[in-house]
């Protein structure tokens, strides 16, 4: 007698699998209806909160070690506030241009999104260029991270933020390629929203760095 196995197959319209007579292996189908619509955004908010804890720890370390000069130079001796102000303006302006990219996305203007993303990326690269110049200048003057606890905490805090901007710029370029290739599909729109939250988050962190590290650092 020939055996006949019963396997599971989905009913019409998706849902739970049903048993049908067939010799094939069980197959399960997922129509995506059980996934939360805002799951990605919720997960990204959780990531930003965890990143906030990292920067909070770095700010606390700087608050403790920010006056430990070890008979070396202080912030008043090292910081070039006009240059840092230009750098701050570049990053804040990049947040505005990214906002224009989001407006273009809402109006389904692919070319506008790509244009404003490109401008945002150039501003981000300008920010990184000035920051690297500042680091190189400090190290050349003998004020590297090994000179004192103050400089160790300074390089760690500012460098961590710069590393985030670097990753954000790489993400931005990758997203430009995806939008150029696939257009403003739902997946790319969601990615644009996540990158927007990340980029604005970096702006908020930098405002704290500019105020707490640089402005307060030049005080006697």
From TrEMBL:
Q: How does it sit in the membrane?
A: Multi-pass membrane protein
Principal location listed in the UniProt entry: membrane
What protein name applies here?
Cytochrome bo(3) ubiquinol oxidase subunit 3
Read off the CDD domains from this record. Ubiquinol_oxidase_III
The alphabetized UniProt keywords are: Cell membrane, Electron transport, Membrane, Oxidoreductase, Transmembrane, Transmembrane helix, Transport
What species does this protein belong to? Azohydromonas caseinilytica
Quote the subunit structure annotation: Heterooctamer of two A chains, two B chains, two C chains and two D chains.
Q: Mention one GO molecular function.
A: cytochrome-c oxidase activity
Q: Which PANTHER family does the record match to this protein?
A: CYTOCHROME BO(3) UBIQUINOL OXIDASE SUBUNIT 3 (PTHR11403:SF2), CYTOCHROME C OXIDASE SUBUNIT III (PTHR11403)
- Looking at the record, the residues that make up the Heme-copper oxidase subunit III family profile domain are 37-218
